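[job 4471] stage=fold_predict status=RUNNING
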Amino acid sequence: MGSMAAAKIVALPMVDKQTDPEPALVEAKASAAQVTVDPAPVAVEMPLPEPEPTPTVSLTKVFVSLWGYVTRERLIAAALACISIGALFLFWYLGTKYKFEFYIRFKNVPTPYEVFQQFTQVGLSNKYLVNIAISVRRILLGFMIATAIGVPLGLAIGKYERVRDFFMPVIEILRPIPAIAWVPMSIMLWPNNEASIVFITFLGAFFPILLNSIHGVHSLDGVLLRAARCLGASEIRLFVNVILPGSLPHIFTGLAVGMGVAWVSLIAAEMISGQFGVGYFTWEAYSLVDYPAIVLGMITIGVLGLACSGIIRIVGVLVMPWLAFAPGGRR
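[job 4471] inference complete, writing structure tokens
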């Protein structure tokens, strides 16, 4: 054969499995196998919130807040009220001191000091306070019943013609009868004196409240009613959102008048058929010819009536805040 290329045999090195791997591979495995353990969390103490200071009531703050309600108009009104009441007591003092006698006689009228002495004697006695409490309970019970019946009935009579035709004849027959004339009949109608006196008080307050509620509905502007109906107001919504708010000024006028008439009726009923109450206290003093006690009973009736009327006015201001912006209102 011709010349043949010499075969070269290359000897490949044999890798021994027993030998250690390269240092880089060992380090990679070691780093992969290594488990990193996070250090334990350190508890950090958070600062506690500071407690809120307890609100304190100081007389200065109370005085400043009350002084904010004092206005020039209120001061003038209070001054005029004091002058009016003071003039009444001055006339009483001068009349009893100089024994005036011109159409009216001050000969047997007790002086203001004698009435004050009478008040210091019986003002804090149990009998006097019990009489006041009983009269207040009677007046509140009769007045609340009259309000609960008179206001809804007055709104219904003022709104619906058929209701007016049914109730008004009876009301017009009973209304002219004074409450004092009902005393004998009420004694026969009711089982005890307490119920009859409350009934007399109810009659005194009922008719003013009823008639003013009717007038309140009649005084509403018809445009408001037509507008509410055009907007889809139901009959209940019409009463609650239009008729009642529009009639409230007249209703509260009736409440104030009814409270005054209720006191007149109550005192008359207590004088005739009562055994307790301010009216009975005054009549008993007249029977015993205790003139200072008579005047004390009269002043007590006046103060209680003033307080009741004042409460009605305050409630009216709270219920009808829009009246402050009406013509003549106090803003």
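[job 4471] summary: Residues 70-109 form one domain.
[job 4471] exit 0
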